[in-house]
Amino acid sequence: MRATVRDVAKLAGVSPKTVSNVINGVVPVRAETRERVESALAQLDYVPNMSARGLRNGRSGNIALALPDLSTAYSAELARHFVELAHERGWAIQLEQSGNDPHREVELVSRARTHLVDGLILNPTLLSMSVVAQQNAQADLDGVRLPPIVVIGEVEPYGIDQVHVDSPAAAREMTAHLIETGHRRIAIVGGSDDRFRSATSLLRHEGYRAALTEAGLTEEPALNVVAPEWTPAAAASEFSGLLDHLENAGGALPDAVFCFTDSMALGVLHVLAKRGIRVPDDMSVVGFDDIGEAAFAIPALTTVRFDKRSIADAALTALAKRIAEPDAPASDIVIPHELVHRDSVARR
Amino acid sequence: MRATVRDVAKLAGVSPKTVSNVINGVVPVRAETRERVESALAQLDYVPNMSARGLRNGRSGNIALALPDLSTAYSAELARHFVELAHERGWAIQLEQSGNDPHREVELVSRARTHLVDGLILNPTLLSMSVVAQQNAQADLDGVRLPPIVVIGEVEPYGIDQVHVDSPAAAREMTAHLIETGHRRIAIVGGSDDRFRSATSLLRHEGYRAALTEAGLTEEPALNVVAPEWTPAAAASEFSGLLDHLENAGGALPDAVFCFTDSMALGVLHVLAKRGIRVPDDMSVVGFDDIGEAAFAIPALTTVRFDKRSIADAALTALAKRIAEPDAPASDIVIPHELVHRDSVARR
DNA sequence: CCTGAGCATTACATCGTTGGAATCTTCGCG
DNA sequence: CGCGAAGATTCCAACGATGTAATGCTCAGG
């Protein structure tokens, strides 16, 4: 059986509370006593029981990271940074999948407190985040306090801390780049419609539209490809559908495809390769996220890069601050981005 | 403040223990009482406090999943299944990264006790797993009990539960397939050497060698590409090195490349595309793992498929069993695999 | 030598849940 | 109608750590 404070206390000839004082170091302990306790601690290889500590003072040392789809490359990279950086702060990461289910997100929030979690980092796909925000407001009214939450990604600002890339700006820049290089019919992959609606999608779409407008171009609704999941498979299948449709209708192909994630771009590149449509000669393709595979796509993918590690860092910092000061005003941290030019775009 | 069993009990007009009985369902409760309690439960949106429960019965409901590199696609897919399936069993997943550091693995094991973890699922890259095994043996001698551990992947059997694919057999089959289709000079990417040594690598190499021997071919050490990390980037760089070397030395190119993971195959495909070496016409490429991106590689990648979900399922089942019966003999579960034939292999 | 200030330590209660034992109900059967 | 068994419910204690309040100790100053 593992040693408890009692055992340590007995060995050191002091009371359990003194041992606790030594461990936590807030109450002063005489040097000589401290030494005795510390040696007993070492001798018994004492490890505090987090359940007990958690029960007593409500801190578990765990924080939850909830991502919409854990199997994407983007999630994996993000998760890695979170785990590494959380570790440095003495936190462990409890991984959760929110899916595309708003209810799941709410559930995560309400269960957080009980599931040994000190805080929550949420990456909502859906605008449904507002559901959580409403919860937040409602809880405030009830005098209940939700666990500290930081949102990764853009949501309606309902007084919740958030960390994100400026999606509309990035999408605008990327679209503008395509326009500058002579593209006129730019399809998007990852758009929203009645069936599928995500905050990220809406914001990137908005940036795309802004760039078109700026250039005096009009959006072609037919070139909006909606993918129910942001995976290569879904993107490939939906994008194939677009090509089939254009072919049957005798419509011209787009001259560029702006995929809202690199993962989807991989699917699109595959479809194009299979159909003998050359990238970038016949059609340009760009992505978003700069996942590890992007540089090794065929051809290497032009995309939007941002530092995922600093997202994790900023989110953890914000969470720590929120835990320390529950009533501080909500922060909104924007992570810088840049276009990475590789081989998937040609000048027309 | 969250509702406790006391609150629920008061509302339902019963004792806290009865509420507990309803929740846990081991002690019988009269139907009418149960109903009253359940309605109170729902009304107060009761959620058990895991800290208290953990303190009382020594279970935290958390298990740790430690993977060598969280940023790989393979890890992501695995993590997803673990999170989903663990959830079904009422467990939350605490994610950890073991890196390629044996000490880190040992640390994870010892930290498990501290960090509210009921068990540990480890995917060791290195044979260093034996370090943990030694810990295990040592701990036994000391009368200390390590937390329940299940290993994903193949390690020296030191009495630890393991779940894995039969790597040597799969590698043998894949190599044999390449030989049957007329390939004679098969490079491998992901081999081991003095600097980098991993259990998985060694076992797949062994299978490759066995197939060559069976076919009366001899291994060419020059065609063994060692990658310090199993990422597209590392594979691309090391494989490029091989091609450069062969070119300078005037050696002939291999006619096939067996990458020990799909991630590395993506890097290899990129390098070949960039150099104008056509796949599969000039060179065949195969992978291992069947990650989601494999089917969308260019060309679609022939690889070894196995059900990652059933790995997660088997590991969780084994862990549950181990927790229930700490002294049961160690199990060794082999997950079936199969070759998936796509477009990256041509008959010669 | 006594007193009181100030610091160090201890006793006790408590967090929420659940085993175990004790108590209370209900119901069948003699 | 009474008794006992089975079933349902309650009471109490304990899991381990720690905040709070009370106690003990040391030492300076009168």
Detailed description of the structure:
Two copies of one chain form a homodimer. The first copy, chain A, is 45% helix and 15% strand. The first copy, chain A, has 348 residues and is of the alpha/beta class. A six-stranded parallel sheet of chain A has the order 2-1-3-4-5-11, sandwiched between helices. Chain A has a four-stranded parallel sheet with strand order 7-6-8-9, with helices on both faces. In chain A, helix 11 links the parallel strand 8 and strand 9. In chain A, helix 6 (102-112) packs parallel to helix 7. The N and C termini of chain A lie far apart (73 Å). Chains A and B meet through helix 4, helix 5, strand 2, helix 10 and helix 11 of A and helix 4, helix 5, strand 2, helix 10 and helix 11 of B. Chain A binds a DNA duplex (30 and 30 nucleotides) through residues 4-6, 14-21, 23-24, 27-30, 33, 48-49, 51-58.
Question: Strands of the biggest beta sheet of chain A: in what spatial order?
Answer: 2-1-3-4-5-11
Number of strands of chain A: 12
> Order of SSEs of chain A, N→C?
HHHHEHEHEHEEHEHEHEHEEHEE
Our count of helices of chain A gives 12
Radius of gyration of CA atoms of chain A, rounded to a whole number: 25 Å
First-to-last CA distance of chain A:
73 Å
Instruction: Give the largest interface.
Output: A-B, 56 and 55 residues
Average pLDDT across residues of chain A? 89
- Strand percentage of chain A: 15-25%
Regarding quaternary structure, what we see is homodimer
The percentage helix of chain A is 40-55%
Low-confidence stretches of chain A: none
Main beta-sheet strand count, sense and barrel state of chain A: 6 strands, parallel
Identify the overall geometry of chain A: elongated
Secondary-structure-based class of chain A equals alpha/beta
